[in-house]
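FAQ
Q: What does a multi-component entry look like?
A: The components come first, one per line:
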Amino acid sequence: MTFDVQVEVMLRPGIADPEGATIERALPALGFEGVTGVTVGKSIRFQLDSESASKAQETATQMCEQFLSNPVIEDAAISVTQAQVGS
Amino acid sequence: MATKVAVIQFPGTNCEFDVAEVVSSLGGEPQIVFHDDSSLHGADAVIIAGGFAHGDYLRPGAIARFSPVMEPIRSFANDGGPVVGICNGFQVLTEARLLPGALQKNAHLKFKCQMVDLRVDSTNSVLTSEAELGQVVRMPINHFEGNYTCSSETLAELQSEDRVVLRYVDNPNGSIDDIAGICNEGRNVVGLMPHPERASHELLGSNDGLVLMQSVLAAAGLAVPV
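Then the predicted structure of the entire assembly, as tokens:
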């Protein structure tokens, strides 16, 4: 089966996020008030052939630990969904 | 016998010839080793030069870590051979987990390209053995991701084991504990963000980098002129 995998890599809490902080400071200048907690990360998407969703999740977790994220400074959130037929 | 220094070149490395130039000016024999090589060809020391290995895609050093040349470098390091990573080379060494911690984006998201003063805080490493404790050396930095960070446990370890070899006198990038360079437990693997090879002649504004490069060559077995 083919699964759509989305990995969201975000800086770990406590790691300075100057990009998020800059965006947060800029928003009020455009009239968007009341925004707090802006964080910036990256999204990595791919298709993965795997026996099951749990197996796909496990594989993606290993990818994150070894390569897609740097556990010293980043956390990874993985979501796995079955790919749409014909996509 | 000549003291051979393997200067590692990834696609995107751009400081390898500067490093090679300084190595030869000090009497060593530099050898550029491309990233797809699975041998260090009998090198006595390894310098991973700066630049943008593999375009810094994903994270600086993240892809370089899987280059074939990293295998012999790992064995060489584990056998106690001197390995120094400069700038991007430091990032590669942390990604390869030959050194702890990580280099994150500079505080205030500023690319920093300037001369900095560094204090030698340990002379017990392959990069600083020829320097004097407390000596201040001046050389350039040129990086966006040079803000060293690590867990509080790792930091405590680095401090108690005297493994912070260089500190910024005036911290330019937000680095934790003003760290500019650290070494591993064996003290034979060192990473630093500043560029000693670019401070190798008075005409370049400083020759303070020479003492560090000399230390590497001394660790590689070259007799240091008195």
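Q: Is there any commentary attached?
A: Sometimes. For this entry: The first strand of chain B starts at residue 4 and ends at 9.
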